[in-house]
Amino acid sequence: MVPAGASESWIGDAASETIELRVPGSLLQSTAVDMGLDPDRIGLAPECQLRDARIEHIAWALAAEARAEIPTGLIYRESLGVALAVHILARYRRTSREPSAGLTPLRMRRVVDYVEAHLRDDVSLERLARIAGVSPSHFRALFRRSMGIPVHEYVIQRRVERARALLTRGELSTGQVAFEAGFAHQSHMARCMRRVLGVTPAAIARSRARG
Question: Does the structure show a pLDDT above 60 at 118?
């Protein structure tokens, strides 16, 4: 058992058949919440030469499903995944006294890059959590620890900054700027700008004209 971020290796001394299972971090996080555990305070330790009959049973069931000419279906595979996550957390979890600090730099960079590339779209919490590899509820807490503000507020601030940059260029109408920055309409953009920057789109446009 090799937790994410750990580096472990082993060498077999005889021929054997191997099944490699990769459990998404988001599945472990959401399962921990369902089990009433604090996902910020649990983790897994590397385990070598581990023999666990239940894990073997689930692994072979998944392998049989992958080879089946007529698979049982996604709901069956998901049920096996949840059963595996529950067993791992129930038997092998390690509890820490301190919660995790936040998202790792790599995961945060992936989230930030996605937000920047999709400001014009309807950015969803579920999508950002999948990119970060954690459950939505856990993602909210980790993002706030990393950035100091809620994720929805961060997205609004980035949209405001995008709108200010576009208004300063003066190449688009106010309505086009609102659309390109991801706001529902001009009034929505104006309200967010007043709250974040303390100025209106018209004031930014006038400042550009004077400059």
Answer: yes
